[in-house]
């Protein structure tokens, strides 16, 4: 007999996502023998207490009698219950200094910690990622910002809609001008961007056409690794080689800066990778007016990413000559949309996706005989670092 408890988020500002939706809780209860589910009452979750109650799930202030406790963000040390198994994003695997005390508390309280970020398939592919909805929200916000700048059309805010389904209804009748949109990347974020491009009726074209032609309708091009990078000497691109030796490559993006209106950036980037363009490339021929930097590394692949904005206020301007931050939509600026928690604008869909992955790949084994996926993501077993995480010993010691 196992009792699962969904905890109330304790970190401030609170995350409105949740690990399991009401119907997923019901599914667990009905389909896994001996499993019960309780939800700690919360006024800030994207699914209300009432929705859980309606699904037949107990909502209570106290979940301390549950064996397995699931949250989203870091659990404040004083809220941790000793001798339990916890699942949440601990943000400790890179020895993040701001969470060292949390690591100490987890150890002191004999906790078993399974970190969502470490749940991976055998080949290292992460099981739980919010990239798709980051792409969806980021693409919407990018087009919205372009509309605000030019006054040619108007799009509302994503978070004001109940969910994704309601959002896409607002695209019926939307007529975009003949803009050119460059989408970079090939992972989950890029897939979310492409979904919005297609729903907004933007036509996909090939890179050569995109660069050479004028169109009488809105178009986008998807630029993947080989379109974006080339070896400085060999003039080739090999994915594995690039990942290991990125400093030997240069960017091929420059021509696109001269025929793009909106850049939707969805690549994975590291400091050894070339940037898409450099600040010096921003001259009279640089046509990009709006950048939705969903990748969102400050001073990263987009050199004019000056840091994060918030969901409430997602866009700022960057002056084309001084590179200083300005108000959005100013005459001499390029607009940058940079927000680090984009999926929180669609928390119900992001949560449903999260729970689906947990139900498919994690929870049945966690409640049964365990699995390699779970073992690899277990950072602490009853307050002790597991072998795979022994590199955290100095960080964990106090
Ligand atoms: N702003 C936000 O709210 C938000 C939310 C989610 C993700 N992101 C960011 O967006 C970026 C893309 O995320 P994603 O979910 O699409 O990633 P993903 O793991 O789904 O895709 C990564 C893609 O990058 C490529 N890649 C290049 N170098 C790589 C390397 N060294 N290791 C692994 N893959 C490499 C892969 O081939 C793959 O196509 C990430 O930087 C992520 O942090 C931002």
TrEMBL record:
Belongs to the AlaDH/PNT family. The keyword NAD applies. GO terms for molecular function: saccharopine dehydrogenase (NAD+, L-lysine-forming) activity. The lineage of its organism: Bacteria, Pseudomonadati, Bacteroidota, Chitinophagia, Chitinophagales. GO terms for biological process: lysine biosynthetic process via aminoadipic acid. Pfam families: AlaDh_PNT_N. The keyword Cytoplasm does not apply. It comes from the Bacteria. CDD domains: SDH_like. This is Alanine dehydrogenase. NAD(+) binds at residues 236, 268. SMART domains: AlaDh_PNT_N. Residues 5-137 form the Alanine dehydrogenase/pyridine nucleotide transhydrogenase N-terminal domain. GO terms for cellular component: cytoplasm.
């Amino acid at each position: 007999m196992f009792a699962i408890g969904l905890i109330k988020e304790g970190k401030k500002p609170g995350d409105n996502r949740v690990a399991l939706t009401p119907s997923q809780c019901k599914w667990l209860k009905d389909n896994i023998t001996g499993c019960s589910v309780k939800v700690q009452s919360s006024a800030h979750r994207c699914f209300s207490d009432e929705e859980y109650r309606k699904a037949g799930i107990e909502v209570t202030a106290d979940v301390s009698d549950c064996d397995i406790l699931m949250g989203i963000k870091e659990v404040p040390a004083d809220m941790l219950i000793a001798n339990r198994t916890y699942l949440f994003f601990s943000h400790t695997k890179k020895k993040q200094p701001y969470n060292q005390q949390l690591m100490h508390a987890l150890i002191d309280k004999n906790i078993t910690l399974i970190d969502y970020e470490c749940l991976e398939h055998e080949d290292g592919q992460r099981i739980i990622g919010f990239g798709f909805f980051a792409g969806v929200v980021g693409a919407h916000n990018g087009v919205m910002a372009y509309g605000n700048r030019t006054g040619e059309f108007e799009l509302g805010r994503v978070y004001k809609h109940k969910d994704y389904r309601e959002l896409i209804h607002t695209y019926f009748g939307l007529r975009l001008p003949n803009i050119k949109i460059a989408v970079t990347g090939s992972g989950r974020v890029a897939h979310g961007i492409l979904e919005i491009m297609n729903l907004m009726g933007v036509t996909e074209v090939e890179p050569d056409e995109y660069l050479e032609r004028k169109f009488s309708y809105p178009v986008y091009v998807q630029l993947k690794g080989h379109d974006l990078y080339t070896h400085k000497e060999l003039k080739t691109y090999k994915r594995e080689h690039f990942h290991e030796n990125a400093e030997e490559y240069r960017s091929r993006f420059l021509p696109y800066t001269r025929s793009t209106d909106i850049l939707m950036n969805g690549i994975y980037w590291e400091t050894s990778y070339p940037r898409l363009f450099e600040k010096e490339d921003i001259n009279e021929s640089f046509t990009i007016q709006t950048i939705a930097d969903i990748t969102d590394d400050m001073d990263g692949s987009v050199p004019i990413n000056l840091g994060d904005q918030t969901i409430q206020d997602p866009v700022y301007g960057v002056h084309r000559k001084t590179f200083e931050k300005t108000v959005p939509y100013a005459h001499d600026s390029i607009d940058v949309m940079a927000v680090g928690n984009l999926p929180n604008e669609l928390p119900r869909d992001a949560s449903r996706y999260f729970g689906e992955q947990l139900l498919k790949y994690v929870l049945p084994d966690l409640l049964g005989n365990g699995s390699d996926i779970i073992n690899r993501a277990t950072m602490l077993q009853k307050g002790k670092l597991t072998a795979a995480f022994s590199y955290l010993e100095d960080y964990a010691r106090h």
